[in-house]
């Protein structure tokens, strides 16, 4: 998973898009509006919400594999 601040000045969103493409179909990219490089500090609720969704998805995939 790539969680990226849409306003990141150190590593712009275009880099995230390239990384997402290179990592392939199992990679998930989510941009967070109004967040820069330290998005987990700048927008902690948005960051945690995206992380929670991703972890729930991973958990559901693992449950489907073991069933």
UniProtKB/TrEMBL annotation:
InterPro entries per the UniProt record, alphabetical: AB_hydrolase_fold
SUPFAM superfamilies: alpha/beta-Hydrolases
Designated name of the protein: AB hydrolase-1 domain-containing protein
